[in-house]
Amino acid sequence: MTLKRSALYTLAAFVVCCPCLGPALSVVPSGPVTVAAAQTAAPAAQTATPPGIPRAADGKPDFSGTYQWPTYMPGDERGRSNATVFDRKRFAPFKPGGEPFYEPRTGDPKHDEPRDFCMPAGFPASILSGNAMQFFQTKNYLVMVHEFQRNTRIIPLDGRPHRQGLEPMFDGDPVGKWDGDTLVIETTNFRRWALDDFHYTNPKEFRSHSDALRTVERLRWKSKDALSYTLTIDDPKIFTQPWSQEFEILAKPEWDKDGLFEYVCQENNRCPGGKCEAAP
């Protein structure tokens, strides 16, 4: 793997977002585990589209391009790793029985960090990992490619229903539709998996969504240089109601010349089975 991105895209992003490459970084101390007086955030209201945004031949906003991963809005709680994490003040209260959302690390590496075994990060943790992204848009599809694990999501844009009869999946089954100049992506049919990387901030908070998870993404241009990305978490086995958090995705056309770096998990895995070896 060749590293040559700007200061915003350093070895730290690789170290933290692929834990098999090294320890997490310390940025912000962890907070309390319990969720009290939770605050939910409504999806972003439809706002005026800024002038001069890219548009496709059919007049829809064009999101094709190279981007930084979703990052925090001012005032949001931040984790210790370079990956973005959810702010606990956005969480809805737990339902009775929803406490398994928090899982302490057990010492079993397959549980504590399945990515050390080259298992997928799963959505939404994958899109929050601290690596570059490229979007490719046609009339019928938006393809999101994340450099981390080369995670790829192919999202139909024609309003089709979800597919039936599928096994639960790490990234779920996404379908998209347009709401004015906002792209709305609903994803269902998840398997139970990690929600984000907060366990690098507090090992007692391995956040795991249930197999009932449903996500809604709202993607729109907020300026000529940035996207607003609002992600709604609807997990009726865990929370009393859906909750949302807005992130910012910065366009990085200067990264186009390098593109995405190749990511081969097993080649770079120095901790197979949780048994780490020294760097060559």
Would you mind describing this structure in some detail?
The chain is mainly beta and 280 residues long. The protein has a single domain (11-27, 52-274), classed as Lipocalin (Beta Barrel). Helix content is 7%, strand content 25%. The chain contains 4 helices and 12 strands. It has helices at residues 11-17, 109-112, 125-128, 265-268; strands spanning 65-67, 102-103, 133-137, 141-146, 151-156, 173-179, 182-188, 193-194, 206-209, 214-223, 226-234, 243-250. The strands form 3 sheets. A 5-stranded antiparallel sheet has the order 6-7-10-11-12, with no helix packed on it. A 4-stranded antiparallel sheet has the order 1-3-4-5, with no helix packed on it. The chain is globular, with a radius of gyration of 18 Å. It starts with 10 loop residues before the first helix and ends in a 12-residue tail after the last helix. Mean pLDDT is 83; it is low at 6-44.
Task: Supply the key terms.
12 strands; 25% strand; globular; single chain; 5-stranded antiparallel β-sheet; 4-stranded antiparallel β-sheet; mainly beta; Lipocalin; 280 residues
Helix/strand layout:
Blueprint: H1 11-17, E1 65-67, E2 102-103, H2 109-112, H3 125-128, E3 133-137, E4 141-146, E5 151-156, E6 173-179, E7 182-188, E8 193-194, E9 206-209, E10 214-223, E11 226-234, E12 243-250, H4 265-268
